[in-house]
Amino acid sequence: MKRVVITGAGTINALGHSVPDTLEAMREGRCGIGELEFRDVDRLAIKIGGQVRGFEAEGRFNRQQMSLYDRFTQFTLTAAKEAIEQSGLEFHGELSAKAGVVLGNSGGGMQTLDENYRSVYEDGKNRVHPFVVPKLMNNAAAGHVSMQFNLKGPSFTVSTACASSNHAMSQAFQMVRSGMSPVMITGGSESMLCFGGVKAWEGLRVMSKDACRPFSANRNGMVQGEGAGIFVFEEYEHAKARGAEILCEVIGFAMSSDAADIVMPSKQGAARAISGALQDARVDASEVGYINAHGTGTAANDKTECAAVADVFGPQADNLMISSTKSMHGHLIGGTGAVELLACIMALRDGVIAPTIGYQEPDPECALDVVPNQAREASVDVALTNAFAFGGLNAVLALRKV
Amino acid sequence: MSTQEKVIAIIAEQAVLEPSDVTLDNTLEDLGIDSLGLVESIFAIEEEFDISISFNANEPEKSDFDISNVAAIVAGIDKLVLEKA
Asked: What ipTM, to 2 d.p.?
């Protein structure tokens, strides 16, 4: 088995248009959630979200590209450019033939769907632009990344709702670890902040009208975000041979299914994914210093997640830090695990633990060190990142400082 | 604008050319318009003239709508506009 390291990272989300900007915001505990701005927002009960601001597609992409790129693809390509530039890799010959891109995404081109449904249903038009399908398909972003960077190996999109990115990154990790490919581009993206996207979530009655406060006793639901996180997963010897800067090592993963309920999380399912990741990474629970929580800020998730962590870690649970950065960038659904992996990189590489902001009242059912409101300096050797999706589909990755 | 001017404007935009660079005997291939560009052009023409063009990219030769060159497209549109009226 090969060792797998991360040699490039890129992002765009409500906290920043790059990794340095995002990590700075996380260090400062800044909140990227605000009033939503798009057509018909006045008809929504939920009017807040972690929207990407100041991102203009014009100028960044040409006219032909604009006609083919939904906003989630635009985010993906922007983050992929940052990640691949940082890695210093160029894809030619054998590397190009073997390298691919595995991305997480849940909604596909929701902006494209929203606009075109509006046009045919509301405006009564009988014709849509010919590129609606290639624009809205969930794998559009993966396809465009492969084209733009000449990645000719295995590429596909994984769709497991809120765990999409973690499942995708687990898949990419396996491909590099097994020796199938020396480099994989991976991560995920989402852009559902449009009228139809938020309206659908509103229906579930799990959204907060004011803030995302994970683990806080007065939490009242989740807040949606949007954006992308993209990483370069590279075989360790390959990275070392070319003198690449290594951000951290990916050491294990596990996936599990609750096989219980389509929306309610299960402690056992979550615990099996967490303990499975430790086992796969061959680390002892005592080595884990930080967990990036799924931490959605809903009543159901946070107490189930804390109970699962307590089950797996036992008394060790009191020695680790667990925070939810969704309090700052919102829940990016299919892209969320990717943006949250940045908090793990910051913990391992920089020794800074991102806080859970908006925390106001301790909850006895979430009695862990949730790093409330302020970032903290700490040396961490091993970190985990959790994602527990609707459908009861869970994926956890384990990372180590290099 | 005449049909011809409108069509040339649409095709020129698709080909990223100046309208003056597009002549009636040009084929879409001459102008560097690929299959995606073709369906986009047909969409733009349908929007502009409020007509419906029967065109299946799988069997373009079976379409009643002649796209062999710019002049044929203009003639096809005039016919459809007339039929509509």
From this structure: 0.80
